[in-house]
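Person: I have long wanted to understand how a fold can be written as tokens. Underneath my words sits a plain record pairing an amino acid chain with its backbone structure tokens. Those tokens are not coordinates but codes from a learned vocabulary of shapes. I should like you to check that the lines agree and flag anything odd. The protein I mean follows directly.
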Amino acid sequence: MIKKLAQSIREYKLPSILAPLFMIGEVAMETIVPFLMAYMIDIGFAKEDLNYVVKIGIEMLVLAVIGLLFGILSGRYAAIAATGLAKNMRKDIFYSIQGFSFANIDKFSTASLVTRMTTDITNVQMAYQMIIRILVRAPIMIIFSIIMAWRLNAKLTLCFVIMVPILAFALYLVISHAHGYFMKLFKKYDHLNSVVQENITGVRTVKAYVREEKEIEKFDETSTDVYRLGKTAEKVLILSSPVMFTAIFAAILICSYFGSGMIIGKTMTTGSLMSLFTYAIQILSSLMMVCMVLVMCVMAKASAERITEVLTEQSTLTNPEKPLYEVENGEICFSHANFSYTGEKGKEVLKDIDLTIKSGETVGVIGGTGSSKTSFVQLIPRLYDVTSGSVKIGGHDVREYDIETLRDAVSMVLQKNVLFSGTISENLRWGNPEATKEEIVHACKLAQADEFVSRFPNGYETMIDQGGTNVSGGQKQRLCIARALLKKPKILILDDSTSAVDTKTDALIRKAFAEEIPNTTKIIIAQRISSVEHADKIIVLDDGKIDGVGTHDELLAHNNIYREVYESQVKGGEEDE
């Protein structure tokens, strides 16, 4: 885990090294000052030697200024290193997510990924900054202070030396117990973010069904769970404070008791005892710092494990050693293809799909809810890989192609149409970044989108709100179809992508496809028979199996499922009339 996260340091290695080096310099200055103070008290003040006092005072002042400068530089470089690490980790996670297959994405919820890129990375950033400063400062301070204290009085220093491992063991017990609670806490954070995201995304539905109170109750319940787990974790960690303070006061009392006796017996000077008190506070304060850093590290460890989980996730889809970089045509051949989301036998959602679609054909796909229509078409651009069997395009298995080349040859308009913040032109150029204005307008005309876009005051430069909330469902669908057409694909897949447009517009879109892109293979998933009845062939899916393949007339005559769907829609239309 540490090795994986350390790869994100990259260009911030130098600040990561300079920060602890300057911190060591600061600690060195701080530990020399009390030693000089002992000489000032025992020689300068005891003998009333003002010149010696001034000399030592100047030396102490110079050391303090140097220590301050070292501290400032250490803090500066630590901040640069920590924020740089966080920046690189966000970049690495985002890049990693972009390389995920749909199967990888299914493993992580959106809310969980957002939490990992925000809260978890912030925790690791804070811990890293503390590690390269405080976790360097504290042990060095303890070592330097014990060495200097030993030079002053070895016997009294022994109580510090004995106290350090005892406290370290006590802190280990507290912190190891708290780690489990923080792992549970971050999972609850994921759930809380999921509840918030779901509510904000579906706020219109919430208000339409007057579900505000129920959503508030759900949020309160989840928020309370986070509070309870957080409180439990903090209760465990807070035990470290009384343990540390008890140790500090015990050490000072022991030093005071035995030190006063040594002063009376003239085996120790007052200045040495004062310096020992300073070193005692430095040693035990450093232990407090270690405790604080370790508390942060416990939280960061849970976060780091979650971040590493994303960074080490390997895409289930990879390029072959010698990929093909050209798709010759839009012919599609399914050869006894089976597919399961889990990859387990007996859980296939597509079973023994054996089918050939010629290049340039228009193919309709009909089936009830849960018949795996979407799963069927997602195998074509290799969003998922078949569990067994094969899918071929242009005579080659899709697994033989370079993934980018394959997906450039296949345009897919998904069920959930997504538009991004920006102008209409910017959204459409997702299909082709180099598309000219004329090509954009032409694609929109084919998708029957030019008519409503032209009516906007700013035309194709009209801004689209986040999620496309300022356009209707039908307009959004047509823009997404135009975006797909700009890719000039060999295969065009419409996954129920005209459900929000009227039958007239639907017919115009199909007519434009037939006239303008006759050589493109077109696969249309639809609920309406009217959307596919003029296709070259229609595939009827039922429970992940092909129930029938044929033209509209052939299926109407020989396929029960197709006939039932047709009759129900015709009857429904007659009743509407």
In short: The CA atoms of residues 415 and 429 lie 20 Å apart. The two ends are 66 Å apart (CA to CA). The longest strand covers residues 332-339. The mean pLDDT is 84.
